[in-house]
Amino acid sequence: MIAKLDELRSRALGELDSIDTSSGLEAWRIRYLGRKSALTEVLRGLATLPLEEKRATGAAANELRTFLEKTLTLKEEAIRESEIARSIEQGQLDVTLPGRPSALGRLHPTTKLLRHICDIFMAMGFEVIEGPDVEWDYYNFEALNIPQDHPARDMWDTLWMDFETEDGRQPMLLRTHTSPMQIRVMESRRPPVRVIVPGKVYRYEATDATHEAMFYQIEGFAVDKNITLADLKGTLFEFAKRLFGEERKARFRCDYFPFVEPGVEMAIDCFLCNGAGCQLCSGSGWIEILGAGMVHPDVLRRVDYDPDVYTGFAFGLGLERMLMLKYGIDDIRLFYSNDLRFLRQF
Ligand code: PHE
After folding, report:
1. Known catalytic residue: 314?
2. Any residues with Cβ below 6 Å from ligand 1, and which?
3. Does the structure show a pLDDT above 80 at 93?
4. Domain assignments of the chain as residue spans, ordered by start
5. 177 part of the active site
6. Catalytic site residue 182?
7. How far is the CA of 318 from the centre of ligand 1 (A)?
8. Share above pLDDT 90 across residues of the chain, in percent, rounded to a whole number
9. Closest residue (by CA) to atom 3 of ligand 1?
10. How far is Cα 19 from Cα 79, in angstroms, rounded to an integer?
């Protein structure tokens, strides 16, 4: 029986060699693997064999079947390819067949909103400037009235790193907010300045639905003669209306940031319930969207702006928070986990 199977194998292989069309291959398949093939016959006849022989023959026959099936698949592919090659050669390519659509890329929701917000402020006369993600303590904290050991440092859980210089290692950090760019910009130019700074910021966080170690902020500030809190309110109110709709109301309340005085937080009336109170606004009717304030005189002094001549306002808003509000997204981690099912919705 085993000898018969071996003979079958070499016959099948021998015939396969000379086959070069799909129809020829189909006939071969029926001959060697079909219901009436010699191999099927052997498998059917197993029951009548004595136990010892049954085991050996069964194993060999099954092995042969797997082998022939595998060989068939390989041959199928080879024939398909050579048939395509032949038909192209003979000019039988059907140019009227519809093409394969190529997947279209799109902008990330964060990028879209970021550009939209930048457009709004540019239309109001602000200039867009970017800054470094890796910062010195001086710009991220010190120059913003947050000295070493100041308790306000607890507001920003910081990722520290070492930077190698000629005089040894210097501590650096991943900026915890975009506010250091207030200092960098003012250091390098004289007023008036009207600037917005979009960019990534980093926090030493255990991530959860509302915290990420990396997210986006947009900083904005304007310094000139005679700038008052009314300018801050007017500018931000106008921004809120352009972003969230003409009928939006805005509310300012006291808040604390060491580098502004006074400091405020701005909220808009909830666009879902129009201020009546719902789940989105936790029943309050208001949604906080940013922190802001008048640039602290000590900050101005540090960049050599005379606070008796110049005043300014500054604000910083978190981009993902706005997106979560706008689209009802309840987990910030969705933004940067590269799940196409999420991203394709925008
Ligand atoms: N930098 C602050 C933060 O990240 C926000 C802010 C910016 C507040 C500018 C006031 C003025 O929390």
Report:
1. yes
2. 177, 179, 219, 257, 260, 291-293, 314-316
3. no
4. 2-89, 109-343
5. yes
6. no
7. 9
8. 55
9. 177
10. 9
Res. 210 pLDDT band, cuts 50 70 90: confident
pLDDT per residue over 50-90, tens digit each?
A: 888 888 888 888 998 999 999 999 989 988 888 888 888 88
Q: What is the pLDDT of residues 268-289, one digit of tens each?
A: 888 888 889 888 788 999 988 9
- On whether the pTM is more than 0.85, the answer is no
Mean pLDDT computed over 131-142? 97
CATH superfamily of 109-343: Bira Bifunctional Protein; Domain 2 (3.30.930.10)
Asked whether the predicted pLDDT for residue 162 surpasses 90, the reply is: no
Ligand 1 pocket test target in 254, 257, 322 with most atoms within 8 Å of CB: 257
- Express as a percent the part of the chain with pLDDT over 70: 100
